């Protein structure tokens, strides 16, 4: 299984093709580009969050002003209805002596009903004005405070998450650099191993050409000792173990 997640070449293939070193280096540069891209995105996210707060506060302020003016309009309308109904009612009362026979007629009943309904409509608009001026405006003020508080909480959470992402990215960069170093060490060890194997093969072929046992040939024994005791091979084994540990993190 490849634990590199596409950020570095697989270790097994890197021992066969030295061109994978360039891939490792380019991967490190790619991760550095990711870090810059992430910081740019984080700045844009903060700007979007601030812009949302600005829009919310602006709209809420406009709504508050709207309902304040609407309350004034409703109150003025209620006062105008009261003035209209009371004026007509008072004039009718003042002229009652001149209209002694008006009460039984349907038209008089309709007039009184209209005046009563007008006063009730006036009361409804006065109540609506009070509702807009007090409860509605206060609710919008509370919403504005909630928006500011939520923005602060979101900003703190966003900053904490962004910080964790940047720390993880920095750790990934460090692991990638260590991976590249171990990969170069493994490639060098593999080159030394092939050279020692070639020496052993040449010594064995030369011993066979002289009808000698390769194991008794001094040249073969020296090549075998070099192959077995070369420190690069221990580095190769340790590099393989370390790289596997890095990729599994």
Automatic annotation (TrEMBL):
Where does the FCH domain lie? 36-132
Protein origin, superkingdom: Eukaryota
Residues crossing the lipid bilayer are: none
SUPFAM superfamilies named among the record's database cross-references:
BAR/IMD domain-like
Keywords, ordered alphabetically: Coiled coil
Which InterPro entries does this one have?
AH/BAR_dom_sf (IPR027267), FCH_dom (IPR001060), SLIT-ROBO_RhoGAP (IPR051627)
**Is the keyword Amino-acid biosynthesis assigned to this protein?**
no
Which residue windows are coiled coil?
186-213
State the protein's name.
FCH domain-containing protein
Species? Paragonimus westermani
